[in-house]
User: What shape does this take?
Amino acid sequence: MSKESFYFPHDFEPTSDPKMQALIGEYGAVGYGIFWRIVEMLHSDENHKLPMKQYIFIAIAKQMLTDVEQIQNVVKYCIEVCELLVESDGFMYSNRVNRNFDKRAEISEKRSIAGKLGAIAKQNLANTSKEKKNKIKENKIKDIYDTPAASQNIQTLMIRTFGRNPTIPEQELIQNEFIRPFGWETTYRLFKEASLKGFKKLITLRDSIEIINNKPHIKERENGNYQGNSRKTQNNNGGGGDDPGERELLERLKNRPYKSNSERLTGEV
Assistant: This one.
């Protein structure tokens, strides 16, 4: 017996049905009770049908406190006269019971479809919300990089490390090659280390970066020389002017025949 069925729809006035009236007229309340007990058993059965076997009649008779012969007579009357039950291939079943389960299956399928559509809509809403949050985060990061405070930090880095103000190309290089891929904390560490090692040119520092275990480090030079090409000229106002180093930096930024630090970090070409 299936444990799925715990209730089934019951007409509020089944006795208005002529078939039921015929059953009650022939067997009274006993016949009425026997019929509904059979309907309950049909709902409980996994296949919604009962075998026309003697043990079934005995079981119903014990439950209804009557004799087996009366159960057989009521069942036969429900099949042959009232057409409340159907006999086929040694089993009895009810078309009404089968319709109840067909309707239940239809409702269950509709609810399942509605649930899946609801889950999809919920997931789409979550994805949209996540995209908005990521966009807000990206905008905040972009704002941090492009604020005057960021330029002031870059200026401090250049003064402390190289003793002068950065040019515009150098500001862009520090933003794109250090701050964006590595973050401020790592950038400060690299510039501090560069100052201790005696770096004289930003481009030399950039070219000395190597990625080890996804972290940037300054490569050790065999001869201990980190200065790169010496400057021939340097304006006192810190603007860079007609500095050969700046011209070299501008040319390299223009042509970019190298991998950026972010490309080194991600492994992209």
Observations:
- The first helix runs from residue 18 to 44.
- The chain has ten helices and five strands.
- Residues 15 and 21 are 6 Å apart (CA to CA).
